[in-house]
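Write out this protein's structure.
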Amino acid sequence: MTTALAPRGRYIPWLFVAGFAVVVGVNAIMITFAVGSFSGLYTPKPRERGLHYNDVVAEQKARDALGWRIETAWRADTGRLELAVSDAAGQPLTGARVSAELVRPVEKRPPVGVTLAMIDAGKFAGFIELPVRGNWDLDVVIERGGNRFAQTRRIFLK
């Protein structure tokens, strides 16, 4: 006489399903964090930049020692960019040559150069035609005498 055995092992296929669900869930979380945390920053030629790191630090210290300050103003209605440049004492910086360009930080677009003319002591202005509005990095270079001051500032153009 044979007796019927109770079916065993019905949970085993569900263990496989649960295991794959855990793997898929962890992958989904990792993909979400990876895509959400990308800042859009990209450094061209990172090795060369790393080799010249001490030069960059020395340039920043020299810039900080000058104490020059830049204030920016953007007039969206006219497309006019104004820069007010002052020295360490807060006096307008005269006799300087100022150049600037706008770079889009999150997409590869060619930089937009700006021709700045002195409109007053320490004040420079130029007009810009931008293809899109939004975040831009304003790279300003000021040269006076043997001194060079370079600064990048993130601005939002409406």
